[in-house]
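Notes for week 9. Today we move from apo structures to complexes. The key idea is that a small molecule is not decoration. When we ask for a structure prediction with calcium ion present, the ligand SMILES becomes part of the input, just like the chain. The input block below holds both the sequence and the ligand string. Read it once before you look at the output, and try to guess where the molecule might sit.
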Amino acid sequence: MSPRAEPRGPLTRAGRVGCGDEGAFEACHPERSRGVSGPEWGLDCASRAKLRIPGQAEPVLSVDTGGVGEGERIPNFPVGGRGYLLRVREHWLTGHFPTENISDSYQLTWHFIEPAADDESEVNDSLELANLIAIGARRRGYIGWSGDVDTYCVSGEPGSLRARLSAVQDVDLVLRVVDRDRGRSRSVDEGQTSEGEVSQVVADARAGRVCFEVSAEEAAEGRAAGNPSVPYTLTLEAVQAPAEEPETP
Ligand SMILES: [Ca+2]
Ligand SMILES: [Ca+2]
């Protein structure tokens, strides 16, 4: 499937519980060493999508953020010089017949995007894969699918800072501050759904030693947490180091 192709794949009615049809598409662009794909598709029932490398049993990404009647969207996933398989199916629920119908169709589109300099770079779900962020700078990212975690470590000159995470509609964000020098971390989750988070002052943050994890609380009613359409921004504000506590005589 070439970029901007828009295949329509009607799903056939399934005959028994838990055995719906699937649509599979191959996306292969070995000439592109680095890119970001943006598959986007809609289906008139709960849907689930998997991105898999041929010959590899486990998908590299499985997305199920939209609810019944909503589509799915992957905002920014890096693709290398290998082929990928995209698989689409209804979200099967135990004890329920599939709702897909041969008269329903979904549309699948994808295209390359060029990330901005301050955009997150997936995959960045662990400290070992963290993106970098300088004090005074900001990064923009998406909690693009259920379970997405975005990790950033301080780079450049050391200093004291306060981290500010902007709000994302319908998502209860969590900001975790990791101090690798002191071997401790603290989660900041004061804000509610659709609200941001602000950390306490982190004094003398050194490059690679203070890091931040952006994630989301699990949504209510079993709904996947995330918003692949609305980005957050993580900003590290430079602040004066807090005064030393006076020694108790
Ligand atoms: Ca992300
Ligand atoms: Ca991530």
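Residues 10-19, 28-46 have pLDDT under 50 and may be disordered.
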